[in-house]
Amino acid sequence: MFESLSSRFTSAFGALRSRGRVSNSDIEATCVQIRQALLESDVALAVVDGFVANISEKSLAALPTLQSGTNQGQAIFEIVNTELIEILGGQARRVRFAKKAPTVIMLAGLQGAGKTTLAGKLAKFYADQGNTPLLVASDLQRPNAVTQLQVVGDSIGVPVFAPEIGNGVGDPVVVAQAGLEFARAKQYNMVIVDTAGRLGVDEELMKQAIAIRDAVTPDEILFVVDAMMGQDAVRTSQAFLDGVGFDGVVLTKLDGDARGGAALSIASLTKRPIMFASTGEKLSDFDIFYPERMASRILGLGDVATLADQAKKAFDSDTSAKLEAKFASGEDFTLEDFLEQLQAMSKMGSMSKLLSMLPGSGAMKKAIDNFDEGEIVRTTAIVQSMTPTERRDPKVLNGSRRARIAMGSGRAVSDVNNLVDRFAAAQKMMKQVRNGAMPAGMAPGMPAMSAPKKSVVQKKKSKSGNPAKRAIEEAQ
Ligand code: GDP
């Protein structure tokens, strides 16, 4: 979403960071570039002006005090990073749980913003953490919204309170209130109320949202906004703030390729934090919004922290421990282990998304966009078509077995041969590494996938969580 903004920032700072000493006019020139980049990305003018003025003032003030020998360009980059984090809301804020359950979360926003999808994502997110959410279907307006919520609820095993079929029938306020009572009676600890939107802000919509709010007195009202809306996102958020009011923002469709800057202005303009980010239609395309991670991405430093989180989630500790023990004991890494790793990788989501979290990914954009996502699926299909014995001991794979596997996976025999050959080469390489210097804790076979798990945890302990600061620490 923020690729163009990111590449503009990267080029604005490329020259500055490579310079040891920076002059006042260098700072001014950089500020002009930053201003242009932000405006072209649709960031609201008032936010841009405040941001650039702060950077200019703080950078000029810092220059004389920066010791000679310090990389001044890098220090100014850090000032920009800090300001960007500030614009994005500063610290990530979590949902405040009610002292007395259930915690009530009400979703508000325009039709199509992604509220119903988000209701499911939130429910899954909190259910995975051991909570017992109840989804309440108070969007009785949009065709099929109730059914959509029921389907989502079913798919994640979260109950849906839906006494009305919707499609214009029923009173959403009564449903919300009854939903809350039901949750209290059945001791759910969280209630997520999906509400109706309209295509644009109108009085009736606002009245209904206010009535639902007053009926359920939510602990959190989350304003859900489509990040691809452009400047309208800013106007809409202001209207919702003045109308029903909200405590936090959820940006959806951050996977889109629109400029997205308007969405970045919302936290600063409404003084409400962005709490979650939605990056796709799947229930797993969702996370807490971390301002510092987003700033890091925008400044071209990637988002290694999120990558590590996802790896941690996908590679459960049992599998990792098993692989490490296997590796340490000198046992062979088999195709069965490889299959487990492939499946874990698929759980982490699309490879392009993962690659785009790496530092410098802006420069590899084309290659990342062209990444063949089907490769993992095809490779998995080949390994799945093997018997357990074949996976454990690929040496038994004679011609007829390979032909059978090719047929079973819908691939050519040459694809099977290719995989087996590459696997044998990797196995050989691993043996050599084991006899040499393999970093401790690195799981075999997929070093690049497993490595962040430990190395990032270790890094966090000893180095700054702020990417710009870390870059300075590492340079020293
Ligand atoms: P609602 O009217 O606010 O309840 O919106 P929906 O939840 O029905 O979402 C509208 C459309 O946007 C649906 O097709 C969703 O699948 C899609 N959608 C929701 N969130 C995202 C997202 O983060 N990324 C993308 N690409 N699509 C999304």
Please, could you describe this protein's structure?
With 476 residues, the chain is α/β, with parallel strands linked by helices. The chain has three domains: 3-87, Up-down Bundle (Four Helix Bundle (Hemerythrin (Met), subunit A)); 103-299, Rossmann fold, CATH 3.40.50; 312-434, Signal recognition particle, SRP54 subunit, M-domain (434 Repressor (Amino-terminal Domain), Orthogonal Bundle), CATH 1.10.260.30. The chain is built from 22 helices and eight strands. It has helices at residues 3-18, 24-40, 45-62, 72-87, 115-128, 145-156, 172-186, 203-216, 232-242, 261-270, 291-298, 304-314, 317-328, 335-347, 351-355, 365-369, 374-384, 388-392, 399-409, 413-435, 447-462, 467-475, and strands spanning 103-108, 133-138, 160-161, 190-195, 220-226, 248-252, 274-278, 286-288. It has an eight-stranded mixed β-sheet, sandwiched between helices. Helix 4 runs antiparallel to helix 22 (467-475), helix 9 packs parallel to helix 10 (261-270) and helix 12 (304-314) crosses helix 21 (447-462). The longest helix has 23 residues, at 413-435. The protein starts with a helix and ends with a helix. The model is unreliable at 437-465 and 467-476 (pLDDT under 50).
